[in-house]
Amino acid sequence: MRKMSAVNVAALVLGLAFLYIPIAVLVIYSFNASRLVAVWGGWSTRWYAELFNDAPLIDAAVTSLRVALASATAATILGTLAALALARFGRFRGRLPFAAMIYAPLVMPEVITGLSLLLLFVAIAVDRGFWTVAVAHTTMAMCFATVIVQSRLADFDTSLEEAAMDLGAPPLRTFVSVTLPLIVPAIVAAWMLAFALSLDDLVIASFTTGPGTTTLPIRIYSEVRLGVKPEMNAMCSIMVGVVGAAVIIASLFVKLTGSRGAAGR
Amino acid sequence: MKRRQPGSSWRRFAIGFPYAWLVAFFLAPFLIVLKISLSQTAIAQPPYTPVLDLAAGWRGVTDFFNGLSFENYGLLGSDPLYLLSYVKSIEIAAFSTLMLLVVGLPIAYAIARTPRRWQAIFVLLVALPFWTSLLIRIYSWMNILQREGPLNDLLMGLGIVKEPPAWLATDTAIYIGVVYSYLPFMVLPLYASLEKLDESLLEAAADLGCPRWKIFWLVTLPLSSSGILAGVLLCFIPIVGEFVIPDLLGGSQSPMIGQTIWTEFFGNKDWPAASAVAVVLVFLLVTPIVIYQHQAMRVAERD
Amino acid sequence: MTKRFGNTAVVDQLSLDVYEGEFFALLGPSGCGKTTLLRLIAGFVQPNAGHILLDGVDLAPVPPYRRPVNMMFQNYALFPHLTAEDNIAFGLKQDGLSRREIAIRVADMLALTRLEGFGTRKPHQLSGGQRQRVALARSLAKRPRVLLLDEPMAALDKKLRGETQFELMELQRKLGLTFIIVTHDQSEAMTVADRIAVMDRGHLMQVAPAAEIYERPNSRWVADFVGEINLFQGRLGDDGLSVEGTAAGNLHVATKAEAAPGAVVWVAVRPEKVRLSCEPPTPALPNCIAGAVVDIAYLGDVSVYKLRIRDGSIVQAAVANVGGSGSAFGFGEQVSLSWPAEAAIVLTH
Fold first, then answer.
1. Which A positions 234-263 lie with beta carbon below 8 A of chain C?
2. Which chains touch C (3+ CB pairs under 8 A)?
3. What's the CA angle centered on B185, arms B184 and B190, to 5 degrees?
4. Nearest to residue A166, comparing CAs of C105, C68, C78?
5. Once rounded to an integer, what is the mean pLDDT over residues C216-245?
C-alpha cells in the first residue's frame, strides 16, 4: 500500500488548482452581466445570447469544424499507416529519414511549419483557403496520430498476427481482421486528438488560410488581441464545456471497453 | 523482406503513402524556406525574387542560382533585433523549462504515489486542459492578469500590494502563461517514467538506511532521467518558437523569435528575412534533438 | 539450413529429416535454436541458407500464409475479439470454404477437443486448459500436413500437463498427422515423441527414439542433458571392452567402443543402474566399488543417493523405495556400489 505524504497531497491539490482556476475564472466571467471585469453585475447569459447574433463567429466555428473533420480523418489514416510501417515493417530502406520526418513536427515550433507550408503553396501557385488549411492540419496532426497508434502497436501481442498468417491470411487481411479491431481504441484516440488540435490551432491556420476562410481561433484571436471581451468569454466557455464533456465521455468509453480488448491471453 | 511476395504491395502502400505525403508537405516546404531565405524581397507576387522560371530553360536555372545570396543571413548578424530575439527566446525557454521541472516533478511524483486505481483519473485531469485550446487558456490568463482583474483584487484584498501592478505586457506574464500551458507536457512524461519505477528499489534503499529525501535524490531522480529528458525536450523546443503566449501576454519591447518571424512575414512582408530567421531557428533546435537521439540509441544498445 | 541473427548462427548448417506421421520432438536448453527452427518451418523467419522440403517442394520462398503447415503458439495467440468458434473458423475462412462446410468442420473440431458447448465463448471467458484446446482445434482445423507445437504445455500445471500429453498422442495417432513439438522438458519429449532431436547452440547433437537417446547417448553432453549420469574418465583397454585408470578402478562394458586402445574415454552409468548393498554382491559383478553416503534426496518413489568413493569424487545412485519405511540407507553408511557390464557404455567425446 502506498503512502502519500502531506507534501504529495499538497502538490497534487495545488497543481490541479493551478490548472483549473483560470478556466473557472473564465467561465464565471462569461456570466458577468457587466461588461467591465472590475464590476460584478450579477449573473447573466446575455453574452451567450449575443454569440448567436454574431454571424461571422458562427461562420468561423462551422469552418473550423469542417477543417477539423477533414484533417482529423486524413491524419488518422496517414498516421495509422505510418505507425504500422514503423512498428511492423522492420528495417525498410529509408526508415531513418521517415522516422525523422514523422517526429520532427512534434517539436517544431508552429510558426515554422506554418511558414514553410505557406511558402510551398505560394510556390506551386495554389489558391489558399479551406483545403490548404486542411492539408496543413493533416500534416501537423499526422505525427501525433502516429505516436499514439505506434505505442499501441508496440504493446500488441505480435503472436496474434503470426497466428493469423499461419492460418492463411495474407498481410493485408491480417491487418484488417486481427490488428485493426484491436487497435481501434488507439485510432479513435488519435482521431480525437487530431480533431482537437485542428480546432485549436491558430498559428498554422493563420499562415495557410486564404481570403474567405476564417477559422474560429483566427476570429477569436483578432477579437482578443486588443483586450478582454465578454462575448469571447462565453464562446470560450462553450468550447471548454464541449471539449471537456467529449474527453470525459471518451475516457469512460475506453474504460468500459478497454480491458477486454487487450492482447493475447 | 527481400523476397518478392504478394502482400508486399500492401507494405509498399502503407509505407509509401505517408512517406510521399511527408516529403511533399514537410520536406519540400522546408527546402523552399531554405531557398527563400537566400532570396531578396520584391514588390511582386510572390514577394520575393528570384523565382525559378523553368520555362526559361537552362538560362532560367542559372539566373535563379545567380540571384541567390546570403544577404539575409548577414542581416541577421548585423541587426541587433534578431540576435536579441534569439537570446530572449532561449532565455525564456530555459528558465520556464526549469520552472516547469520544479513545478511538474512534485505533481508527477504525487500522482505516481496515488493508489493505482486513481492514477488514470489524475492523469486525465492533468491532461484535460491540454485538450482545450491554448488560445482559450492564455486568454483566461488575460482575464486574470488585467489591472482590474481578480489577481490584483486578491493581492490588494490580502494587503500584499497597495496599488494594482500591471501584469500584462511583462515578461512575468509570459512565464506564467508558458508554465501554465506546458505543464501537462512536462508532467505526463515525468509521470510515465516515475510510474515505471520499481517500488522494490525504493524499499531496498530504505532498508539500507536512506531517509526519504535521500531516496528521492539518489534513486528516484537518476532512474527517471529519461522521463525528465523527454519532458525537457518536449517543452524547451516548442517554447523557443512560441508566438501566441508572448503576443497576448507579453510586451512589444523585446519580442521572442516566434513574434519576430510573424512580424517580418505579415507586418513587413519580408518573406526572405522571415525565412532566414526560421532556418537559423531550426538549426538551433535540431541540435538538442540530434544529441538526444544519439543518447537514446546508446541507452537502447546498452540494454 | 542456417539462420543467423547478427553474427551468431542460431541454427548452424543443420540437416534434419522428419517422417510422415511421426511425432517428432525438438529438445534442448534455452537458446539452443529449437524455437527458431520451428519458426523457420512455419515461415516467420527466413533462413540465410538452406531449404525446407515438404514432399519434395521447397517451402523456403513460400510465405507463412501459403504453407500447408500450422502452428500452435506457446501463449495460444487466440484472437480476443472472436469467439472460440470464430477462432477455429478463421483459417477455414481464408481458404474460402462455404459457410456450411466451415460450420461442419468447426463442430468436428469442437467435438475432437471436447469443447462442445463452449464454442460461443470468447477467450477471456475460458479457463487456461480450455483456451489451450481452442488453440489446438484452431491449428488442426485446416488439416495441415505438419502441425508445429511451440512448448504447448508450458503454462499448465503438472497434472493437466500429463493428461494433455496423452491426449496429444492419441490425437496424433488418430489423425495420422505429423507433429513437431518444441520443448525444454525432457520427460515430456520422451513421453510423447517417436523420435527426439537433441539440440545445443544451433547444432543437432543426437536424433533417435527416446530409449536410444537415454540408454545410448552419443556424447557426454547428451548423456548429461537427458537425465542424470555418472561419468568416469579413463583409458580404453586393448580389448575395447574395459577402461582402465578411472576413479572407480578398472571398469567393464558389454559393447565394444569405437576408439583406439589407450584413447581417453568416459564410462557412463545412469544412477538407477547402480545397485547399493551393505556387502559386496555375490556372485561378484565386474564393476564394484566401495563408497560412503554423503547426501540423500528422498523423493517418495525413489531415493537419490550421493556417495563419495575412494578418490573423493561423487557418484549418484537412484534406488526405488520398495521397503515402505523411507530410504534404505542412511547418512554416512558404508555401502558397496556395483553394476553389470551391460549397464554402462563408453563415450568417446
1. 260-263
2. A, B
3. 90
4. C68
5. 89
Q: Is the pLDDT of residue C311 over 90?
A: no
Using a CB-CB cut-off of 8 Å, the residues of chain B touching A247 are 124, 128, 131
C333 by Cβ neighbours in 10 Å (0-12 / 13-18 / 19+) ranks as middle
B196: left (phi over 0), alpha (psi -120 to 50) or beta: alpha
What is the C-alpha separation between C135 and C129, in angstroms, rounded? 10
In one-letter notation, the amino acid at residue B252 is S
Answer yes or no: is pLDDT of B303 > 60.
no
User: Residue C34: enclosing H or E segment and its boundaries?
Assistant: helix C34-42
For C13-39, letters b (16+ CB in 10 Å) and e give ebebebeeebbbbbbbeeebbbbbbbb
Ordered structural domains, chain B, with CATH:
78-302 (1.10.3720.10)
**Among A91-100, B116-125, C68-77, the least confident range:** A91-100
- Tell me the shortest Cα–Cα distance from A129 to chain C, in angstroms: 43
3-state secondary structure of C49: strand
Alpha-carbon gap, residue C69 to C143, rounded angstroms:
9
Going by pLDDT thresholds of 50, 70 and 90, the confidence category of residue B1 is: very low
Backbone phi, psi, residue C184, to 5°: -105, 0
- The shortest C-alpha distance from C261 to chain B (Å) reads 52
All partners of chain A with 3 or more CB pairs under 8 angstroms: B, C
CB A236 within 8 A of CB A145: no
| CA–CA gap between residue C117 and residue C133 (Å, rounded) | 13
Judged against a pLDDT cut of 90, whether residue B97 lies above it is answered with yes
pLDDT of residue A261: 42
Domain ranges of chain A: 54-256
Instruction: Tell me if residue B91 falls in helix, strand or coil.
Output: helix
DSSP 8-state secondary structure symbol assigned to residue C125: G
The pTM of the full predicted model, rounded to 2 decimals, is: 0.77
Considering only residues B138 and C304, tell me which one the structure prediction assigns the higher pLDDT.
Answer: C304
Cell (9 digits) for A109: 515550433
> pLDDT (tens digit, 9 = 90+) per residue, C85-102?
999 999 898 888 899 999
Alpha-carbon span A224 to C132, nearest angstrom: 64
Residue C76 with chain A: CB contacts under 8 Å: 264-265
Residues in chain B: 303
Residue B50 preceded by cis peptide, ω within 30: yes
Element (DSSP H or E) covering residue B214:
helix B212-215
Q: Quickly state the pLDDT bin for A264 (edges 50, 70, 90).
A: very low
DSSP B209: T
Q: Which CATH architecture has domain A54-256?
A: Orthogonal Bundle (1.10)
How far apart, in whole angstroms, are the C-alpha atoms of residue A119 and residue A140? 16
> Given this model, what pLDDT does residue B45 score?
60
pLDDT band (50, 70, 90) for residue B4: very low
